[in-house]
Amino acid sequence: MLMTRRLRMRASIGALAALGFAAVLGGASAQPLNLQPSKPAIATAKPSRSGTRLPPVRPEGLGLPRTATAATPVQTASAEAPQRIAATPAKASGKSSAPQTQDEAVERLNAYFNGFATLQADFIQFSADGRRLEGKLYIQRPGKMRFEYRAPVTTEVIADGTSVAIRDKKLATQDIYSIGQTPLKFLVKERMDLARDSVVMGASTKGEILSVRIEDRSTLGGTSKITLNYDITANELRGWVVIDPQGYETTVSVYNLDTQRRPDPKNFTINYERVL
């Protein structure tokens, strides 16, 4: 039984890492449901990976706790002196130019996310323990999201608009959390407004990548720090980095994005009585 509980904990940690609260399982607000499946899980064929574009290489030092450093004061943007963002020059192109101020950067991301209602993408997740996990991401706004991990991982993360379920098909377990406890809840909001829904800490550009740093102080376990990475030229989300309240870092890269095809509604169904 102890081994089963450890396996369940590890699976849940890997899944919750994508949402940014990997190290705070078992809080008072969690409502675990220990359920037995009505039939054995059916193995599915491993998706073909031919022809897919590979995401960026895993950065050095990823997953290590962040050490405390002297904070750089963030000036409040104003009409008289808008806060300019740090930039690394990119090669000139005829496509979208980089935003010049923090306010412009935030509005650029708001406009991007508010420009689609559905999203499907492949993802690669580097967890704080160094593990690399892959799978498929589905989003249908408002409120619905699914992280479907590839084998041998048997965990799924499903948001149905109200709750987030962490399901393990092999162990026949399901844990339920409020969607408001997840730092990535803004991904499924009907209308994104980063300045209203979080604390914007800064923005910068490096080449064609715009990075906006925010803090969410309402997540399970404390404040989560999130960096959103957006490709200015391609007009696409490239992924995010979450530092949980304990200081551990999880990076998720997304690629092969599709905002035209509508996901199957069954992807977002939580069975509150059964796991399978």
From TrEMBL:
Keyword match Lipid biosynthesis: no
Pfam family for this entry, one: LolA
First and last residue of the signal peptide: 1-30
UniProt keyword Transport present: no
Keyword annotations: Lipoprotein, Signal
Region described as Disordered: 39-103
Polar residues bias (residue ranges): 69-78, 94-103
InterPro entries per the UniProt record, alphabetical: LolA/LolB/LppX, OM_lipoprot_carrier_LolA-like
Name of this chain's protein: Outer membrane lipoprotein-sorting protein
Gene3D superfamilies (UniProt xref): Lipoprotein localisation LolA/LolB/LppX
